[in-house]
Amino acid sequence: MTYPGAPTGPRDGSRLRVLAAMSGGVDSAVAAARAAEAGHDVTGVHLALSANPQSFRTGARGCCTLEDSRDARRAADVIGIPFYVWDLAERFREDVVEDFVAEYAAGRTPNPCLRCNEKIKFSALLDKALALGFDAVCTGHYATVVVRDDGSRELHRADDAAKDQSYVLGVLDERQLAHAMFPLGDTLTTKDEIRAEAERRDLAVARKPDSHDICFIADGDTQGFLARRLGTAEGDIVDEDGNRLGGHDGAYGFTIGQRKGMRIGTPAADGRPRYVLDISPVTNTVTVGPAEALDVTALTAIRPRWCGTPPTAAGRYTAQLRAHGEDVPVTAEPTPDGLHVTFDAPVRGIAPGQAVVLYDGTRVVGSATIATTRRRTPAGTV
């Protein structure tokens, strides 16, 4: 069965003690309000994730500013729930920011939102909530928790596929799902309708812009952020035969599939655009080539996280490879080191460090971190 609003916990069907993570945005505010309206004992908490928060946002960029904290507090006051600010800045720096920098330094492309959900919201926050006697953590994510007849939990896509965020929640295990509440996941409403609901509830965040990009890089300049952390490291841009085409100030500033921002003086012989095919942190070299060299037929992935019982044999699934990417049909097989995934048809622009999330219909089976890819053209194999 699916509980309306996905309120699950150790005392299903009864009044739960719920800790609502309130970012200061409209989604988390409406989620907290719905949980309270459903009769649960809700307490709001804003996570202070920056050691030196800015006073105000820059448009829709960034989060965790002092303005966001105040917006969350005002929303909690309107809802009529207690509110606290918890300082998790040091844990966030270690588990999310430093991991992000280290992954780029190693030539990989991480997704910090998955790492935050795994390490912060449903590890550090959930563990603290359970220690304080709460039954569940509530967030404004668009996803659905289904409770089976045997009491086990499953994570499913949100009813509205356009807003589905199950990809970034694919790192949650069954224990964490048992204490997760996503009140927005089973509502077929547009974002405008969520904002209209916030207005009806007199929540001042009703028209606040959504945050986007990487929350701890408020100006959106990822390359500049990495340059400040990793410094300048000049290297070569080469073609598939190793011929030098240009230079760069740091291989960390590139991602697989990137087309723009490369200082290449020599045009391709066929006149077609060239894309980043490979990033080698050892030699500090970026390899570029034609678009078709990006076609990936299979991948291996490590550090699997299963949303329930792990699969024991090869099976047919769909896979999502980006937060807003499309499902693609695959065959996936667990291995001693993680997972091997073969695509029915080649897919393009997959980078090590990204997450592959497997689905069985709408159910999230689990996720893993991409380690290597196999390309259709031998010269492009990584």
UniProtKB/TrEMBL annotation:
Where ATP binds, per the record, is at 21-28, 47, 140
Q: Where in the cell is it found?
A: Cytoplasm
**Which UniProt key words apply to this protein?**
ATP-binding, Cytoplasm, Disulfide bond, Nucleotide-binding, RNA-binding, Transferase, tRNA processing, tRNA-binding
* tRNA-specific 2-thiouridylase MnmA-like central domain ranges (all copies): 224-289
Q: What is one GO cellular-component annotation here?
A: cytoplasm
Active site location? 116, 215
* InterPro entries noted in UniProt: MnmA-like (IPR004506), MnmA-like_C (IPR046885), MnmA-like_central (IPR046884), MnmA-like_central_sf (IPR023382), Rossmann-like_a/b/a_fold (IPR014729)
The protein's site described by Interaction with tRNA is found at 141, 354
Per the record's keyword annotation, is ATP-binding included, yes or no? Answer: yes
Q: Which segments constitute the tRNA-specific 2-thiouridylase MnmA-like C-terminal domain?
A: 297-370
Family per record: Belongs to the MnmA/TRMU family.
Described purpose of this protein according to its UniProt entry: Catalyzes the 2-thiolation of uridine at the wobble position (U34) of tRNA, leading to the formation of s(2)U34.
- Note the NCBIfam families from the entry: PRK00143.1, trmU
Protein name listed in UniProt: tRNA-specific 2-thiouridylase MnmA
Q: From which organism does this entry originate?
A: Streptantibioticus silvisoli
